[in-house]
Amino acid sequence: MMKHAWDNYEKYAWGANELRPISKRGHSASIFGSLSLGATIIDAADTLYVMELMDEYKKARDWIATSFNFDGVGEPLLLMIVIMIFANLFIMHIQHMFIAQL
User: Fold this and answer.
1) 3-state SS string over the chain?
2) What is the pTM of this model?
3) How many whole angstroms separate alpha carbon 53 and alpha carbon 97?
4) What is the pLDDT of residues 18-53, one digit of tens each?
5) What is the pLDDT of residues 46-81, one digit of tens each?
6) What gap in Å lies between CA 34 and CA 18, rounded to an integer?
7) Chain center to CA of 53
8) Cα–Cα distance measured from residue 13 to residue 40, given in angstroms and rounded to the nearest whole number
């Protein structure tokens, strides 16, 4: 199920916060305002890693490294972004450090 959902997000909504599956369009107007922060990419990256979907994980990781930015983020969104996004980035970092030690 994760692979199916991810493949469709990648095909129809890459970089948007979420996929609207019926219309097959990306959607970014949500709790993040109208900013396309790639919330699905960041939120799913650690799950991709745990599920050993390494090609998908590497693509997500590369998008985060090259395309993720905070331009246009106002103060009201900052706490939500810190909680949701940085927690996932921290988990990815810990996973990477753990695997590097094996």
Assistant:
1) CHHHHHHHHHHHHCCCCEEECCCCEEECCECCECCCCCHHHHHHHHHHHHCCCHHHHHHHHHHHHHHCCCCCCCHHHHHHHHHHHHHHHHHHHHHHHHHHHC
2) 0.74
3) 18
4) 999 999 999 877 666 677 788 899 889 888 988 999
5) 889 889 999 999 999 999 889 988 776 666 666 776
6) 12
7) 14
8) 9
